[in-house]
Design a protein that fits this description.
The chain has 270 residues and is α+β, with helices and mostly antiparallel strands. The chain has three domains: 83 residues, Beta-lactamase Inhibitory Protein, Chain:B, domain 1 (2-Layer Sandwich), CATH 3.30.1450; 63 residues; 50 residues, no CATH class. It contains seven helices and ten strands. α1 crosses α3. Keywords: Signal.
């Protein structure tokens, strides 16, 4: 910032000094000062005072009249101009040296990155972000080719990423469908088993209950039937168990009335 202000001051002080600067005296009006020295570089208002700024100094006016004169002589102004000229040339040379060093540094960094295997293994997005940051830091070094190459690679990566995302979504849908199908098959198998159990129970005429803890069915054994005639026991009929099922006989099925008639006939010997 100081270098910039100094450079601006050098430009301002390089203006030629009017030969009539010595003609300004106290009591002159603002118009006379401007007519003699020209338009000032700037003006400062301080309550009742006004400062007119010129390359060779300043003029103070109070209520429109010159009250103070602070201007350099011709000899002083010439010496100051020469000093400022040398400082300006030195400043410009320093800026050129700094710019050259900065450019050399940027070129060296660019060459190192282009030859780096580690940098080449980075993703295209990381490379693109780096070259954009590099361009801001070293605007005088051309990295257009590097940015274009990284951008093309980044677009390819985005295309592949979108494709992988779509494949993952399809795989998730297939897995969900398979899970739903397996659940449906399980429910169907449970329903089939329940239907078969109900059908067997209805055909065998047996009573059972299900243990809620071990999910097993227990069948009640039918009672033994004993028929007495004139106080004497004539016959006993007990159910037979085959394959876990109790049956009273192995013959064809008969109704309750037919079974009772048959049992009475056997008891009376008819």
């Amino acid at each position: 910032m100081k270098s910039y202000l100094r450079f601006a001051l050098l430009i301002c002080l390089s203006l030629p000094l009017p030969l009539s600067a010595v003609a300004i005296k106290k009591g002159d009006s603002t118009e006379q000062v401007i007519e003699t020295l020209g338009k000032p570089m700037g003006t400062i208002e301080l309550r009742q005072k006004t400062l007119l700024l010129y390359p060779q100094g300043e003029i103070t006016l109070t209520q429109g009249s010159v009250t103070e004169i602070d201007l350099m002589s011709d000899e002083q102004f010439a010496k100051d101009q020469e000093r400022l000229r040398l400082e300006r040339e030195e400043w410009l040379a320093d800026q050129e040296r700094r710019q050259a060093a900065h450019t050399k540094e940027g070129l060296s960094i660019r060459a190192d990155k282009m030859a780096s295997r580690e940098f080449a293994t980075r993703s295209a997005k990381e490379q693109l972000d780096y070259w954009r940051s590099f361009q801001i830091r070293y605007p005088e070094v051309d990295v257009t080719e590097q940015i274009s190459s990284s951008l093309a690679g980044y677009e390819t990566e985005l295309t592949e990423l979108r494709s992988q995302q779509r494949i993952a979504e399809l795989e998730a849908r297939v897995a969900q469908a398979e899970k739903a199908a397996a659940s449906a098959r399980l429910e169907t198998e449970k329903l089939r088993q329940e239907t078969e159990r109900s059908e067997r129970s209805r055909n065998n005429g047996l009573s059972y209950y299900t243990d809620p803890v071990i999910d097993s069915r227990y069948y009640y054994r039918p009672p033994t039937i004993t028929i007495h005639t004139s106080g004497q026991k004539k016959a006993e009929h007990s159910p037979r168990r085959r394959n876990g099922v109790y049956r009273y006989d192995d013959g064809p099925k008969e109704s309750v009335a037919e079974r009772a008639t048959r049992i009475l006939n056997e008891a009376t010997g008819q």
